[in-house]
C-alpha cells in the first residue's frame, strides 16, 4: 500500500509578480478552477489604477484534476460500474440486505478485475505499456486503496449480522489485503515435508496465526519432522480445542467467554509448566494464540501498517467485539502501535488510507466521505459508495435528524460526477444515468442542457441523441440540436439536409433563411436545389410563410415543366394574390406569367390579367424607384439592386409584361364575350 503523493505545479503569471505573487480563484464549472492575478486591497490602498494597468495582459489560468478514465482500462471499469449503478437504483431503496451485499460485491469484483488488467499492463513488455508503467502504478495504488476501503465499508455497514459482531469479517478483510502469508503457505504445503526446511516456514506460521488462520497453521505444523513429538501433539491439541465464536452457533457471548476463559487458563498453565519450552518457535506460536502482550508487541513493532494485526489480536482476545466497540478499540490499538514504533505525533504518522480506515472503524462517516473525496479517482469512489449507503439506508447513520442533508449529499455527488462524464466525448451516455437518477430538479435540467453541448460528428449520432431527447421530452434540447445540424449541413452545402433539419427544429428563422437561400439561388441560376426534399415537405411547410411559398412555387414549377398549364396558371395566380412573396422574387414571378399570357389559348382571364397589371404597378415599379434612390444616395457605388436576381433590365421586363397583358386582354375579352353571347 503506497501513499498517494499530492502533485505539485507552478503557475507563471507576470502580472501577479507585481503584487507579491498573489492569485485569486473561482470554481467556474464542476471541479474546474479559474485562477488569475489578484491585487491585495487594504484600508490604506488608494482607489486608482495601478502602474501595470493596460500594459500587462490579464491571464486566466484554468486548473482541473486530470481525468483518468480516458485510459481504456479504466474506461471499462466505469462502463461496468454504470450498469451496476442502474441496477441499484431499480431496487428503489426497497431491497433486502442480501441484495445490497450482492451489489457491493459486484462493485468490488469490477475493481478487482480492473486491478488485474492494470497489473498485467504494467508488467507488459510492449513499448507503449512500458511508457505508461508509472501511470499504471499510480492507478493500481489508487484503486487498491478504493477496494480496501470499500471492502471494510461493506463489512461494517452492509454485512447482514444481527449480533453486529465484526471479527470474522475483519479477519477475512485482512487476509484479502495481506495475502502474502496465505500464498506462502500454499507453496510450502505443495512442497510436502520438505516445506518445513524452508527459511519461510516459521515466519509463515506466525503470520498465519496473527491472521487467525489456525487451520492452515495446523496443516503446516503437520509437515514438521517432529510433528509426532509430545510438544507438537500438545500444541495441536491446544489449537484444535480453541473455542471460536460463531454467531450462528446458538449460544450467547457470555457462554462463549466462559468457555474461552477455561481454555485460556488451561493453555497458560501448560505454558507455565514449560511443556513447550523445548520448541521455542512452537512456544511463541501458542503465546500469540493466548494474546501474550510481550510477544504481540514484538510483532507489532515489525508491522508496517497500524491495522495489519488488529483483527488477529481481536480474534484471540475479544472475538465477540461488535461494530459499536470497534472505534474505541481501534484508537487504543493505534496508540499502542505508535508508542511501540516510538512515534510522537500520530497525526503526521498516518497516511491517507490509514486515516480513512480509522474513521471507518470509528463510524465517523462525515470524515470518511470527506477523505475519500480526496482520492485521485475523479470522484468515482465517493459517488458510488455514498449512493450505495444511501440506498440501503446506512447513510442516515451520519445523523438521524439529517435525512435531507444525506439526500443532498448524494444528489450533489451524482450531479458532479454525471456532469463530468457528460463533458467527455466517449462517456456522455454513462453520465446520463447519474444525472437522471439525481433527485434534484437540476439533474434533469443539466442533462437537457449538456445533451446540446455534445460534439456531434455524424448524423447517426445526432439521431441517437434526438431519440434520447424525444423519450425524455427534452423539447428545447431537440430543437437546439436540430438547429446546430441545420447550420452544419448548410455550411457543408448540403442544402436539402439543412432544410430537413431546420424544419425539424421548428425554428421559423432557420427555415426562412434556408428557404430564402434556395429561392435566391433559383432567381440567379434558374435551377431549384434539392427538389426531392421540397417535393416531400407536405404539411410541414406551414412552419414558416417563406417555406409555404417555396413549396407552392415548386408545385407551379413542376406543373409548368409537365406542360400542365391550367393548374400552373391557377397556382401562379394564387401566389400573386398571396402576401407571402419575398420582394426579390417579384421580377421572376411576373416573368413566369409572360408565357401563360402569350398563349394563343388563354390560360389567364380578363379579371386575373388586370390583377397582374396591378401587381406590376404596385410591386415591381417600387423596386425601380428604390434602385434610383439608392443610386442617387451612392452615385459612386456601382450596385444594381436587381443585379443578383434573374433579370438586369427591369424596365424591359415591365414593358414585356404590359405588352403580354394587353394581348391577353384582347383575346380574353373576345373569348369571354363570345361565350356570353
From TrEMBL:
<comment type="subunit">
    <text>Component of the nuclear pore complex (NPC).</text>
</comment>
<comment type="function">
    <text>Functions as a component of the nuclear pore complex (NPC).</text>
</comment>
<dbReference type="InterPro" id="IPR011502">
    <property type="entry name" value="Nucleoporin_Nup85"/>
</dbReference>
<dbReference type="GO" id="GO:0031965">
    <property type="term" value="C:nuclear membrane"/>
</dbReference>
<dbReference type="GO" id="GO:0017056">
    <property type="term" value="F:structural constituent of nuclear pore"/>
</dbReference>
<dbReference type="GO" id="GO:0006606">
    <property type="term" value="P:protein import into nucleus"/>
</dbReference>
<dbReference type="Pfam" id="PF07575">
    <property type="entry name" value="Nucleopor_Nup85"/>
</dbReference>
<keyword id="KW-0472">Membrane</keyword>
<comment type="similarity">
    <text>Belongs to the nucleoporin Nup85 family.</text>
</comment>
<keyword id="KW-0813">Transport</keyword>
<protein>
    <recommendedName>
        <fullName>Nuclear pore complex protein Nup85</fullName>
    </recommendedName>
</protein>
<keyword id="KW-0539">Nucleus</keyword>
<keyword id="KW-0653">Protein transport</keyword>
<dbReference type="GO" id="GO:0045893">
    <property type="term" value="P:positive regulation of DNA-templated transcription"/>
</dbReference>
<keyword id="KW-0906">Nuclear pore complex</keyword>
<dbReference type="GO" id="GO:0006406">
    <property type="term" value="P:mRNA export from nucleus"/>
</dbReference>
<keyword id="KW-0509">mRNA transport</keyword>
<keyword id="KW-0811">Translocation</keyword>
<dbReference type="GO" id="GO:0031080">
    <property type="term" value="C:nuclear pore outer ring"/>
</dbReference>
